[in-house]
Amino acid sequence: MAMREIRVLPDPVLRTPCDEITTVDDRVRALVDDLVDTVDADGRAGLAANQIGVNLRAFSWNVDDEIGYVLNPRIVDLSEETQDGDEGCLSVPGLWYPTTRAWYARVEGTDLDGNEVVVEGTELMARCLQHECDHLDGKLYLDRLERSARKKAMRELRERL
């Protein structure tokens, strides 16, 4: 178990869709330990495996004093009702931009023992679930910004690199 370094843009692993986990072995168990340890810090709501350089479909969350993980997550339900609010990302440090997300989200996947895991929530939890599933598909919240906000964010990002 270890607190892992967070990969930041322009690291290509962040733009690469992650592979399904087909076998739970010692490597996957260590990954889950690292995801849980690394997300357990102030200001961290979620962490996808590719954010620590591992190209597998898994993420951890830390919302409302609850820490958990899910393997091979997939979004199975989103509300039509939306929420707006500033969103940030550990892999894009220091940038916060208004991002529209579904107000409610439900994710299904499995745990290390192959049992079904259902994670659902509203507001921050819903935002987290959508954000982390995007990461596993090789997408960043910046991709969801309205055109003018995305242009401003990319300019700000280029100035920092």
TrEMBL record:
Q: Bound how, and how many: what does the cofactor note say?
A: Binds 1 Fe(2+) ion.
* Pfam families to which the protein is assigned, alphabetical: Pep_deformylase
Key word Hydrolase present: yes
UniProt: Fe cation binding residues: 89, 131, 135
Q: Does the keyword Metal-binding apply?
A: yes
Q: Which cofactor does it need?
A: Fe(2+)
Q: What EC number(s) is this enzyme filed under?
A: 3.5.1.88
Give the top-level enzyme category.
Answer: hydrolase
- Family, as annotated: Belongs to the polypeptide deformylase family.
What is the annotated role of this protein in its UniProt record?
Answer: Removes the formyl group from the N-terminal Met of newly synthesized proteins. Requires at least a dipeptide for an efficient rate of reaction. N-terminal L-methionine is a prerequisite for activity but the enzyme has broad specificity at other positions.
The entry's protein name is Peptide deformylase
The organism encoding this protein is Isoptericola hypogeus
